[in-house]
Amino acid sequence: MEDESHPKTLYVGNLSRDVTEILILQLFTQIGPCKSCKMITEQPDSRRMNSSVGFSVLQQSSNDPYCFVEFFEHRDAAAALAAMNGRKILGKEVKVNWATTPSSQKKDTSNHFHVFVGDLSPEITTEDIKAAFAPFGKISDARVVKDMTTGKSKGYGFVSFYNKLDAENAIVHMGGQWLGGRQIRTNWATRKPPAPKNVQDNGSKQLRFEDVVNQSSPQNCTVYCGGIQSGLSEHLMRQTFSPFGQIMEIRVFPEKGYSFIRFSSHESAAHAIVSVNGTSIECHIVKCYWGKESPDMAKSVPQGFHSGRSSTEHFKTVPVPSLGGRVWIPGAVPARSCDAQPGKLQHGWLPDTVIRLSLSSVGISGLSVRRT
């Protein structure tokens, strides 16, 4: 039986009736050595059927042939999938995907209770997390998410339970436990809402970790999360993002509907962007980007995000006579045109001495200023 974690067989569909097994083998062996190719030409009706070679495919009403191509190595099959899907063979754009065995057909778990498992060691497998969470109740599904090109773990996975209480107990008791060489993180999985019917796709694509992690420098650990028009709080952001890694700082701007989350590592931030972008939080679809590489997240705006408004519109100042100046309230970047005066507050900064303010009278808490 084929190893489901490292599949070697591809489904190739939407083929021209002039395509032969020999032609398919000639094309795919240019990518890697092929073990076999089996062409299926009969498709009597529209239903899921098991083919004569032991793989399952959803039959369509058309009579287009399809085939299964088996490689000797998983890496060659993955490379062929990336290279051949969408290519034209004899004038038809072929569809290439992983072939699935009948036993691997997944049941509908959309109404089950899903647990996110983060900070997984590279060597941890699906069977490992299934065994680790099995004591908490009956598991309907479990998987470690892997890069389809390299076959390597992305460092997180999901476990689904039939019973909500079992899932809750797993989250509470497994968070911080050692699995392999790392302490894992657990939380409720954030699931993407289904696309509304009769609504055209907005063109957004599922983000890939490899793309996101390279969009900003390795020193950048800050995530922008926007689009939460109500209910935004630090607790909500910590609950949403803590599964992806250690959080160093959170800044929330409820009136603007966005926040900044600074992680301890660039990779954790990248995982957070990939996993949370496009999901529903408090019934709002959120967008996540890299924040600017600034130690002061209150001045950060997402890279590639422009509101089209002057930066000074986002901050306002409040006089603080006891400190001899004014402080900036978070909301945007303060104006730069101001002459520095010793002992005065300039743009919210008093160099040399960091002061933590808690000014209930003006509704400010947690601002950092520096004495000049």
UniProtKB/TrEMBL annotation:
Q: Which N-terminal residues, if any, form the signal peptide?
A: none
Instruction: Name where it's found.
Output: Cytolytic granule; Cytoplasm, Stress granule; Nucleus
> What's one GO MF term for it?
mRNA 3'-UTR binding
**Which Pfam families does the record cross-reference, listed alphabetically?**
RRM_1
Cellular component per GO, a single term: nucleus
Q: Which UniProt keywords apply?
A: Acetylation, Apoptosis, Cytoplasm, Lysosome, Nucleus, Phosphoprotein, Repeat, RNA-binding
Q: Any idea what job this protein has?
A: RNA-binding protein involved in alternative pre-RNA splicing and in cytoplasmic stress granules formation. Shows a preference for uridine-rich RNAs. Activates splicing of alternative exons with weak 5' splice sites followed by a U-rich stretch on its own pre-mRNA and on TIA1 mRNA. Promotes the inclusion of TIA1 exon 5 to give rise to the long isoform (isoform a) of TIA1. Acts downstream of the stress-induced phosphorylation of EIF2S1/EIF2A to promote the recruitment of untranslated mRNAs to cytoplasmic stress granules (SG).
Recorded hits in PANTHER family, A to Z, give: EUKARYOTIC TRANSLATION INITIATION FACTOR 3 SUBUNIT G
Assembly with partners or alone? Interacts with FASTK.
Q: What is this protein called?
A: Nucleolysin TIAR
